Amino acid sequence: MSKTEEILKEQTSVKLNDGNVIPQFGFGVFMIEGDDSTEKAVDEALEVGYRHIDTAHAYQNERGVGAAVAKSGIPREDVWITTKLWPSEYGEGKTSEAIDKMLERLGTDHIDLLLLHQQFGDYLGAWKDMERAVRDGRVRSIGLSNFESERLEEVLDAAEIMPGVLQVECHPYYAQHGLKKRIAPYGIAIESWYPLGHGDAGLLAEPVFAELAEKYSKTPAQIILRWHIQEGNIVFPKTTNPKHMADNIDIFDFELTDEEMSRIAELDKGKRFFNVPLEEQERTLGQFVPAD
Predict the structure, then answer these.
(1) Residue 1 falls inside a structural domain
(2) Domain that holds residue 137
């Protein structure tokens, strides 16, 4: 059995609150510039066993993702594609049109998971259109990204279809235990961006990770990613380095003990690496309108 076949056999998944099953480990394409570079990176990711790709309209590389999936020869139902709507696309009617454009850019007849990217604009109108898209088969699951204020509960109160996931900053320095308690009654799963703390040298150099890396013949980054898996988080670290890509997903041949998970939990210090006030985010992010 090849290494890719072993990874495909061993890697884990999460059952969402709508019954759909999402691969727990994915590949993120944030800040990969251009469709050609994205297509190459996704092609390499699929080759080593990734079956979950996370993109967004704002990343301006959906076409590259779609091209790589199409040419891979992997059945479409075996590759989970997540993408995100930008606030400029929010609103009843407007969001439905934006979803059709997404499908065209991705070159697919359905989106596996569609998220609201930011908590600004007419997100309630957008959510209604997303629910309609689930009902008419254009989208399988829907969720939220970066909704951590009271606007999270505003969507939950209005929703007829509950969000399946909430994508936020999450890592051992900021484990999001409070947010997890807020969403637990709804069965919402956490997706982590900055799963390695934005590559923070201090986090990666924590003695517990060095110790466990030696014990399991892994790297500190692999230990952190394994912690995410056992925490139940959905993760999609981004890299264009083929070796790092292969190393990142090579975390399904060992398991941390309860005692080791507890030691890592002690690192949680409520430290964010993205800490911009909501008002400033709304002002600056609202100025960006992604091209079609």
Answers:
(1) no
(2) 13-285
Q: Is 141 helix (H, G, I), strand (E, B) or coil?
A: strand
Q: Which pair of structure tokens corresponds to residue 65?
A: 């993702």
CB 177 within 8 A of CB 191: no
Query: How far is residue 173 from each of residues 72, 148, 196, 215, measured CA to CA in Å?
Result: 37, 17, 9, 22
CATH number, domain of 255, equals 3.20.20.100
Residue 90 known to be catalytic: no
Between CA 272 and CA 260 the distance in angstroms is 23
Number of domains in the chain: 1
Selected catalytic residue, list 59, 123, 174, 194: 59
Res 247: pLDDT: 96
Regions of the chain where pLDDT drops below 50: none
| pLDDT score of 287 | 87
CA distance 266 to 159: 35
**290 located within any domain:** no
Report yes or no on 3 lying in a domain.
no
pTM, two decimals, is: 0.97
Q: What angle do CA 281, 65, 236 make, to 5 degrees?
A: 60
